């Protein structure tokens, strides 16, 4: 499969209208969708497993409650995408573009996001466990009440990020450009002196 067909999109839309019952859910398993143009697609609750989505355009896509497992998404564009309550496990999202995306309640576990561009993204109540953000650009990102556990945030730009109520546990923040962290909780984190 080199793209998601119109037939698959219609079947997924019908599956959503049936409340997620029966057949038709979009499941991209072990497929290669490199550089596919899927912007503005409605893939809420879709499943992506062991898929290669490098360079895919998902601008303005609706991906709420979707699941991404063991996917590679190098240089993939999620500009203005809706990612609320989506779940990401063991994914490589190097140089991903998430600017102005909405991701309330997003969850990422053991993911690689080095060099990701996330300026002005809004991800309140997000949870990140063992995520590598090294060198990511996250100025002006909204992350209130987010939880970071065992994450690599070295050299990350969080200059004007909103981190009120955010919790950082055992994270490496060395070299990070940080805003005032009043209202954030840091437990056993590594920081520059």
Report on the structure:
This protein has 193 residues and is mostly beta strands. 6% of the residues lie in helices and 14% in strands. It is elongated. The termini are far apart. The mean pLDDT is 95.
Q: Count the DSSP helices.
A: 1
Largest sheet, in brief, is: 9 strands, parallel
Q: How far apart, in Å, are the first and last alpha carbons?
A: 51 Å
Number of strands: 9
- Which spans have pLDDT < 50 for at least 5 consecutive residues? none
3D shape: elongated
Backbone CA Rg: 17 Å
The overall average pLDDT, rounded, is 95
Tell me the fraction of residues in β-strands, as a range.
5-15%
User: Which series of helices and strands comes N to C?
Assistant: HEEEEEEEEE
Question: Which sequence of strands runs across the widest sheet?
Answer: 1-2-3-4-5-6-7-8-9
Please estimate the helix content: under 10%
Structural class: mainly beta
């Amino acid at each position: 499969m080199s793209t998601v067909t119109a037939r698959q999109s219609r079947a997924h839309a019908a599956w959503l209208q049936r409340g997620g019952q029966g057949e038709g859910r979009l499941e991209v398993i072990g497929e290669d969708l490199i550089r596919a143009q899927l912007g503005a697609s409605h893939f809420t609750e879709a499943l992506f497993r062991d898929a290669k989505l490098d360079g895919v355009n998902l601008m303005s896509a609706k991906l709420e409650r979707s699941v991404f497992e063991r996917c590679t998404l190098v240089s993939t564009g999620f500009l203005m995408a809706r990612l609320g309550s989506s779940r990401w496990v063991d994914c490589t999202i190097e140089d991903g573009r998430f600017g102005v995306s909405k991701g309330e309640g997003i969850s990422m576990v053991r993911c690689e996001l080095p060099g990701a561009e996330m300026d002005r993204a809004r991800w309140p109540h997000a949870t990140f466990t063992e995520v590598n953000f090294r060198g990511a650009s996250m100025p002006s990102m909204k992350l209130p009440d987010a939880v970071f556990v065992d994450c690599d945030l070295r050299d990350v730009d969080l200059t004007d990020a909103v981190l009120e109520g955010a919790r950082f546990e055992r994270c490496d923040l060395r070299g990070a450009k940080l805003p005032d962290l009043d209202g954030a909780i840091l437990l056993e984190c590594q920081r520059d002196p």
